[in-house]
Batch of 3 targets.
Target 1
Amino acid sequence: MNERIKILRQKSLDEIPCISLERAEIVTETYQKYEGTVSIPVLRALVFKELMEKKTICINEGELIVGERGPSPKSTPTYPELCCHTLEDLEIINSREKISFKVHDKERKIQAEKIIPYWEKRAIRSKIFKEMSREWKECYESGVFTEFMEQRAPGHTVADDKIYKKGFLDFKKDIEQELEKIDYLNDIDAYDKKEELNAMLICADAIIKFAQRHSELAKEMAKLEKDEKRKAELFRIAEVCENVPANAPRNFWEALQAYWFVHLGVITELNTWDSFCPGRLDQHLYSFYKNDIENGILTEDEAKELLELFWIKFNNQPAPPKVGVTLKESGTYTDFCNINNGGLKIDGSDGVNELSYLILDVIDEMRLLQPSSNIQLSRKNPDKFLKKACEIISKGWGQPSVFNADSVVEELLRQGKSIEDARCGGTSGCVETGAFGKEAYILTGYINLVKILEITLNNGVDPRRGVKIGIETGDPRNFKTFEELFNAYKKQLHHFIDIKIKGNNIIEKLYSKYMPSPFLSIIISDCIKNGKDYNSGGARYNTNYIQGVGIGTLTDSLSSIKYHVYDNKNISMDELLDALACNFEGKEIIRQMLLNKTPKYGNDNDYADNIMQDAFNAYFNEVNGRKTIRGGVYRINMLPTTCHVYFGSVTGATPDGRKAWQPQSEGISPVQGADRLGPTSVIKSAAKMDHIRTGGTLLNQKFSPELVKNGEGIEKLAHLIRAYFKMDGHHIQFNVVNAQTLKKAQKKS
């Protein structure tokens, strides 16, 4: 990397994240000024307009891509209309050892005197908890499931290529045409469409104004700049911001800047549920790159510099902190912006190009927390591309992850997407599949599959809280067969999924009514055509996901019960339940038998893996295909982020030998230490899950650096990935680290 990149990268790393209440103040003042005088979509658009016109802007020294989420790098806004932080929250944010945000006294004072009094009972989170049933709250408190929308707005979506083909002046024309088509005589939704489309118009003007403010600032800075090279750069920045995103970008630099303004617009409008990103960056930008190179406008080194500056912009934007219990349980600076690289073109041919390799170079050099990166690997992609990615993976810093592009297309086709939209889709966030730029695919929360088994073993009672939250499915001591036990588990699963989805239906309605997102709606296909907001089902495709957590722990627990209680009868159900109730105190012999004398998932053992398939199918059958109020359907995916740690902390001892309150298995990975026959056995076990019926699965593997330190090791890693993907695996990611490094990290933690 060149000197400019070294300096700006280090500044981004050194910058201390802090909380800014500028956005919260502007939002509050706008609501106080307009609430009750205009429709809700127009109110939200006016909020966006005020933010774009009033928020502090900056152009950092040396940068070429401009714009920040807050007043300065890593100055992080809050979203009180979604969830209003308490003063206790601010203290936790400020004082926790890891993932802290500096909270100044000024911010505490503003929060106490201005934000909390207005938003404490108005925020969406407050509305949610007011509307939820007692049984929903009991399940939430017990850790049966989490709810994403209490912390974030819907918006787990990704940009497609339309923002590189159209400017917002073009989008305005599209909106105005739809306004003219409204049939006020026969369309009962005519008024709602008018208000939504008018809100979009306001937002389109606002993002253009936001860019123009940066153009004007760059000109002012250029006039004062004494360094001639930097003066020229500032005038060029002014020219770029004058053109985009008002108009379609004309070159590579403008394309990156156009996306960045859109990105800031989306994440400023609302704190969407993570992951908004440019998606298939190599394919979206390739025509600009190729044209600029061929016409001498840009060199490869200059393109790489712009991409590296783009990477730094992502790293300057920590994810806004959560609230309440979730704030204590999880924290990350990562906004899960996951850039796709490779995969397929719209015609189904190999999508890898020169820019794909350049992006791999950028990933390798930058080594930043954000953005996340992946390769979309198709059987049509060359091995050279995979091996270059594997070389980066072998260096042990966690990126890029690897996705099966062919499986992703199959998953989207199964969900009813067109072949073209499926090929132009990909993955975002952690591992989630979606049709980029055309789908609202909304993650509604995690479900604790292991906790549901614990409740089944206690006949509907959560033993941690002593509260009956499940249904009575019978005392397991009286079950004569494993099938009786598993049927009881399925009944409990049905009960809790019903509760979760009943709550989801109310929450979706609250967002549709009170928190539309007219700016995001402009760039998602069919929202303009339908005159309907993203949060109300305006997108071409609408999908809700519930994420299943703990499949490895669940499988091994069920395997232990079947193997020891029913098949071999070397322990009674009574003895097992007693051992679980006392967290194996004085029962270490039983625990060791459960740990070491049981068929375990992750070893290509059909006894355990068949149980995994049954558990997966039970979950799939309960969720898949249920209707959403936005006109879409529910799907499943299998990922935890870090929720397997939280879910473990609310789940007692389990029949696989796990002690109470310890983490559960992560993603679809085996329980830590349970896989004893090597990585090929793990992928063979994991591949027995039907990944194509999900919207994403997450498999992590840990390798010692010695295994992948040379060409032979890289070759084997590439073959392992290809083998897993031939069996329709969805995702795989590698932690390349040795025991010594992990022990050092433990000492520092």
Note: The two ends are 31 Å apart (CA to CA).
Target 2
Amino acid sequence: MTQTITHLDCTLRDGGYYNRWDFSVELINQYLAAMAATNIDVVELGFRSLDTDGFRGACAYTGDDFIRGLSVPAAVELGVMVNASELLKSEDIASAVHALFKQASDSPVSLVRIACHMKEIGPVLPASRILKDLGYRVGINLMQIADRSESEIVEVAESVSRYPVDVLYFADSLGGLDEDKTAWIVNTLKKAWSGAVGVHTHDNMGKAIGNSMRALSEGATWVDSTVTGMGRGPGNAQTEYLAIEMQKLRGARGNLVPLLELIRSEFKPLQEHYGWGKNPYYYLSGEFGIHPTYIQEMLADPRYGEAELLAVIDHLRAAGAKKFNIENLDAGRQMYGGAGTGAWAPKELIKGREVLIIASGPSVAAHKGAIERYIAKCSPVVIALNTNSVISSKLVDLRVACHPFRLIADFQRYSDFREALVLPRARLPEVVGNDLDKLNYFDFGLTVNNQGFKFHDTWAEAPSPLVIAYALAIATSGKASHITIAGMDGYAGEDPRNDEVEEILEDYSAAGGCLELRTITPSRYSLAATSVYAL
């Protein structure tokens, strides 16, 4: 193999999905020194972004001023990545590019890669010409092309060939490639693209290194990796292993000691904390073409046991889940179609009274004393979501749950609670229903559809099977005077669950018969707010 190979490490960019790109300067400097010693050619320090929603660390923006404060070895070229979706949000793509990048001669960054899906290629390619005019080397990273036809891939390669792009990458986004399919993609791209080809592999099935090496043997000349494979879900080709293979190809030895020391002191503890890396669930996601974020989400939730994980994977396999959508993870939605039924009318308990919904955010524990004093003073009907037990059980009137997998996982805990459990009995599979007689429960029906909220005496219609939608429906069908919420803090950063909850609240506010909502603890959602300490 005689061609010049460029080895690019993107640990801080891809790994930042775990820690909100919030790496310390000390760690970054140690990492850069290790990259230089290991003969890494290019380091992609992070993203370049205009998005200011929520807290993200420096490597989410990777500004020139921040980079100038780092100890960057002279031998290491620096790059950043920008998402095509963000550029395309702007009415004027040129303005977006110029807002992110100045002349390359005035920047410590020399390479910009644009990550895009197939449908984004045409609209975003003009950005490559603007970046080239600014003096940058430009890469295009194609995502999720593994299942595309030869003609589709050739067409995209032809489109890219008409622009001043330095390297055309493809990513094994779902982690399902083998060596032969990797080779096929490289050679298919080369039918219409004469420039450099790059590969970014994922390790769902333990094939990242093998696929990377096969791509190089077929003529790819750029290859990505991350330290310990740090990246979403199963992670990527591991830099420490790929560097060894690069030494064989190049006939030149680098010094691996700084990298291995950094792995032991910094990255292994991070891996133990966040849990990236291959496992049987990621293997199945790669085999079935399921987006690995689904697996990552479930593994982060301790209420998903082995049986629930496998059941959801089977559901996603049948439904098709190449793109992550939080609604697909709610397999319970499939069980709540059709007309609703129920046997309990919540107005027997709730009519004319305030309802206080206790969600699971950390603000409940932080303000527990004040919340409990408020309950004692104002005597609302207290509804706790799922197994949330921060507030004293003596103060809770009802507990609500509706997701079948969560009910399976939490079943034994519900039998320990004093208060009645409200659930949509008729909709639950027999694996849950057979043991329900052991519980003290009320049957309030639920139908999930796209028609928004509608409220009936013993059942309700809602746009989502999430428990907050179910609780709002119960309180409203019960003719509450108003609804107060505690503990609906929201999720960190750009977690897609925030968008889903916000949509539920918007749908609720647009529904006929909706009630006034307010939060008495901190929340990122669009809710009227007051302090529990002011009441």
Note: The chain has three domains: 6-274, 280-329, 347-534.
Target 3
Amino acid sequence: MNKLPKIPLIFGVTGHRDLRPEDREKHIKAIKNIFTKYNNEYPNTPLILISALADGADMLVASVACEMDIELHVLIPYNQGDYLNSIDDKELFHELSQKAGDEVKVLECEQNEDGKFTHCYQQLGEQIADSSNILIALWDGVEEPSNNGGTAAIVRYQRDGFDENMFDSRDGDVIHIIPTARVSKPNQDLDPLQKNVEYLGRLKRVGFKANLQRLDALNEDISTHTCKDQSSDYTLLQKYKKFFGDRANTNQTRYKSLMTWLIMLIGIAIIFLETMHILSGAGELYAWGNHLILGYFAGLSAAYYIYRYKMRGDKLQNDFIYSRGFSEAIRVQSAWNDSSIGLEKKVSSYYLRAEPNSLAWMRIALKNIAYMDSSSYQSAADWIEEQTAYFEKNITKRDEDYEHYETIEKWVFCIGVVGVGITALLYLAELAHIIPHGDFPSNWHLGVLLSGIALLLAAFFKKYLYIHGFKEERDNFREILSSFEQADKRFKGADKKLKQQIVFDLGKKALIENSQWVSLHNQRRARFEME
């Protein structure tokens, strides 16, 4: 048994090399303020910093991060030998590299015809910006006209650059700019402690914070989870897939158990009510039987408060809906990571794009999970076959169950209508003295009638939404199955380029289908089901 790592919040750094020595303490304080802010606001979420360990800003932020026990990842723009020649403080470079341990990676970038690596620095900065949620920029604010890999170019890329889904705005990206004067520009007068935060894309400040709170709540659940019955060679991606799958199944079981108890309590309450109604007509048992009305209201009250307590904040349903969404998205990511296909795509750029901003935290989490593990636990071919069988099974199941469920709901509703109608007629007959039942307290009878109507309407509208959600889900499955069946036939004889296209298109289609499922259940909250 071992612990599943929490999903981190990822920082990147860009900045000038020629920092003024007299500003060092202010820079350190400003950097610590940023890290402390996120540590305090999201205590369950670990922080990671990606740095190229260049002189100046990169090394300074990395040093502060290590001092605060923040995990350091190093990304070098080209081969380490040539890169070291550009570093003045080689001793600090080696010290920080050792603290990063295995998390030191080198981009595959070669010098151009002029023997320069300028394009490598641009590529490095863009990759750091793309990988991070929060970019710390020690910048003097001076714009530079070209993309030369400098600080201004990377800030501009983070502000204006497109991700893989180029017509959709970024979400979950923030720039913390620390005003930084440079030795090469002695006339600058900038205060590093002056706050300058930019919230980019669709989320803005409030939305970004709300999404990080959701991520932090997920990490709180992960912290209590222990990976059981998992092979030692499971990839991290596979462990997350199992965690979310188990979490969805657990919450489905809890929900079914809750509904069973609620039905039992309501049934007991009805028994108390009917017994009271019978005994209240017998004179010698009237005094005792009439008190059974307390049992009726006690049963309904217990059912109501248990439901409210168990469903507080919708956590039970949220955990199920979002866990299944994560599970399916990670499955697609694993297929896209298949090394034999060579498809370098991230599901976070395509998943839940048309859904409310409140679900952006799922994309942030998936982006950071993909950063932590880019391996695959399932081949693309196996994924296609598995998904084809999955949709075939579920369409068959839904075709078999749909008519049965719909018939039951109609009969239950009709019986409810008849029951309430008879109760109403009896009540009116008592009021008109057609039925001599003066000993029965009519005000209680009216309360029973109204509560019965309320329960009937609540059940009807809930099941109405369920039926419509059920039909939409079945139709979605039928549509996507045809795509997987065609892909399964074409995939085996396809070349690498065609395989890439097939897996990419199928993955996007699967993500759209799952986005619809998450949205459908998130809005209607009609039922739980996990095959």
Note: The chain has two domains: 2-223, 311-524.
